[in-house]
Amino acid sequence: MRPFLLALLAKEPAHGYELKQALEQTFGSAYPSPNIGQIYVTLGRLEKDGLVRAVDVEQSNRPNKKVYYLTAAGREALDDWVDEPTEGPRVRDEFFMKLVLAPMTGIADRMALINRQRRHYLALMRDLNELAERTDPDNQVALLLIEGAMLHLQADLDWLERCQEDLS
Amino acid sequence: MDTPPVISTVNLVKIYQDGGVPVPAVRGVDLRVEPGEFVAIMGPSGSGKSTLVHMLGGLDVRTSGEIWLDGDRADTLGESAWALLRRRKIGFVFQFFNLVANMTVADNVELPALLAGASPREARERREQLLGALGLADRAGAAPAQLAGGEQQRVALARALANRPRLLLADEPTGNLDSRNTRDVLKLLGQVHRDGQTIVLVTHDARVAGLADRVVSLLDGQIVDDGALPVSRRRPRGGVGDVVELRG
Ligand SMILES: Nc1ncnc2c1ncn2[C@@H]1O[C@H](COP(=O)(O)OP(=O)(O)OP(=O)(O)O)[C@@H](O)[C@H]1O
Ligand SMILES: [Mg+2]
């Protein structure tokens, strides 16, 4: 979550709860909503590393709130994050390890593993279908995130089919 | 008395003859589909998916085995009896569309309902509703040849549903669609299914298969898996957001 918070703070200083809301608004239900505790823990670490700094803002009838802003070092860390190439989808896949190793030990049958995994992926796809239906059609960011997840699942399923053909 | 399954096959086999060489395409399939069920059929190319649904729709003759539809034996029917049966209770979407070339899109969609005895007004209303749902309202007057592949495919789906058939058989109904058009088709399929439509649908598209209650996987003409999609463990929390996280 660190780079996301840095990016939001690059836009404008904010306190913890505003950051939580900004994340929710941007990604909708397509991204797990972080709890406020996680956000404060992350902000604390960023502060310790000198990437953000906090100022206390007095409030008339409530406790002071901390408003966070980005430091020059924070800006640099954000730039590095944006500039570095992003890891693609996993190349090594835990399921593949099971598929290769389990039959050697007699623990499981390959076809059964593949069939179970297919059903699992399709159940995820069903959830994504429902999520897409529930998502505000104007929230392009959320819809693109969902569509990306769907395309990955499709690739995983196509690959399972290959495994089933070649290993049967 | 219990309602019989919409489809029941017993040891269904299809062996094509390819220049004297037997090609076994479907090898002993036992499949039961209950009223209102949505079954997706998946499997690699050449695994026998089209052959299976063609036999279920009487478009291909089985080599051996039995097909029962709504409790009646169907595999022993002749061609004209099958044609009547299809008209009465089966909507079929082919992998390669099969629209009537010299009729407009509107007439293509209305025809099955009219043949089944719907009034012209009913047929027109249903056609308008279906073409609207599939984003094709403004193509009603076009001839099939004037349409893009993906449009023809959606017309074929509208035609198959025009009759509110007892059984919808569809072979790759989204094979030529981009993601926006696929979304329209998904919505329509989800809707008719919720209204009780029984569906057996061949697909490679996981989004479509994700709508099904149950997935049947074919490999080399045999069923290698048949079962309901599990309820995902993550669901009760409401936010399916973590599904996306899982992909990361
Ligand atoms: N008319 C035919 N004559 C001879 N062989 C055929 C005929 N139709 C299909 N086959 C063979 O039967 C097997 C199953 O074909 P089928 O079309 O049912 O596969 P499929 O699962 O629908 O594939 P795809 O995903 O490519 O549509 C294949 O080996 C195919 O070559
Ligand atoms: Mg086919």
UniProtKB/TrEMBL annotation, chain A:
Superkingdom assignment: Bacteria
Domain Transcription regulator PadR C-terminal: 91-167
SUPFAM superfamilies in the cross-refs: Winged helix' DNA-binding domain
Record domain Transcription regulator PadR N-terminal: where: 5-79
Protein name: PadR family transcriptional regulator
Automatic annotation (TrEMBL), chain B:
Residues annotated as transmembrane: none
Domain ABC transporter as annotated: residue spans: 7-245
Keywords: ATP-binding, Nucleotide-binding, Transport
Keyword match Transmembrane: no
Protein name: ABC transporter ATP-binding protein
Keyword Transport applies: yes
Record-linked SUPFAM superfamilies: P-loop containing nucleoside triphosphate hydrolases
Sample GO molecular function, one term: transmembrane transporter activity
InterPro entries noted in UniProt: AAA+_ATPase (IPR003593), ABC_transporter-like_ATP-bd (IPR003439), ABC_transporter-like_CS (IPR017871), ABC_transpr_LolD-like (IPR015854), MacB-like_ATP-bd (IPR017911), P-loop_NTPase (IPR027417)
Top-rank lineage group of the source organism: Bacteria
GO CC annotation, single: plasma membrane
